[in-house]
Amino acid sequence: MGHLCSAERKKPSYGPWNLPQTSFSHLSRQGEALSELETRFTRCCQLAEGERLPCCTHAWEGGLVRFCKQEYSTKTLPFHCCREASKQARLTCFASQAPFPTYEKEGALLNLAQLTPLLLDSLCSQASQDSKQRPNPALVQNITDTCCKLQEGERTACAEEVKSQFIAAFCSSQRRTWKDPQKCCSHKDEAARRECFDRSYLGHISLLSSEQAPLPTEATP
User: Fold this and answer.
1) Which of 217, 221, 220, 207 is nearest to 97 (CA)?
2) What is the distance in angstroms between the CA of the first residue and the CA of the last residue of the chain?
């Protein structure tokens, strides 16, 4: 629980900015489940010390139940842990998939709140090397497709404009399924809305791979 509830832990962000919008729907479902778990874990960590572990355990088990129900509601093959026969077997399977079982480390994170020339150079370099089979985060792909063909000195302004357009398009969409838990889209002022996205979502974006990303393990003391 110490690592999970540490004030210094950078909580990964999952949403339409880093989840591919086509061909990799299983990653979108996993990302949404992870975001929900992070929100519930945050609430549990605000409780008294003796109440944190039971709360996180309940949140984790409930999150996996909801995730597996959603997996079976799709036409694709469910995540393999969901196909285990018993509850305990499913929990054990998910726990075995965790890259950092005790939350002592963090996965690769990307900061799109601060679009620097160095970051854009890195994104453009990676974009030129990526296979078409690799899922491209939606916002990253929008930036690289639009801005990487420009001169280096023009990329930052381009990326900032692409990000603003992405946020505006997302918030105006009538079909969005992501719930915007921090209510950033409710800001009428464009600058305030963007600042909310930068602060709440875009500073700690988790990078997903084309493999099915595991859900986090059960919280331990």
Assistant:
1) 217
2) 5
Position 169: which residue type?
Answer: A
**CA geometry: angle 179, 113, 191, nearest 5 deg:** 75
A 10 A CB-CB count for 126 gives 13
Task: Report the alpha-carbon distance of residue 195 to residue 188 in Å, rounded.
Answer: 12
Relative to beta strand 109-110, strand 205-206 is antiparallel
- Identify the residue whose tokens are 């974006």: 205
Contact partners, residue 179, CB within 8 Å, separation at least 6: none
Q: How far is the C-alpha of 167 from the C-alpha of 182, rounded, in Å?
A: 14
Helical segments of 107-184, H only = 117-129, 138-147, 152-172
Q: Is the pTM of this model over 0.90?
A: no
Measured over the CA atoms of residue 52, residue 57, residue 58 and residue 64, the dihedral's sign is positive
pLDDT in tens, 199-212: 988 887 766 544 44
Inter-CA distances, 68 with 132, 177, 219, Å: 29, 18, 19
pLDDT per residue over 22-72, tens digit each?
555 677 778 778 878 888 998 999 999 999 999 999 999 999 999 999 899
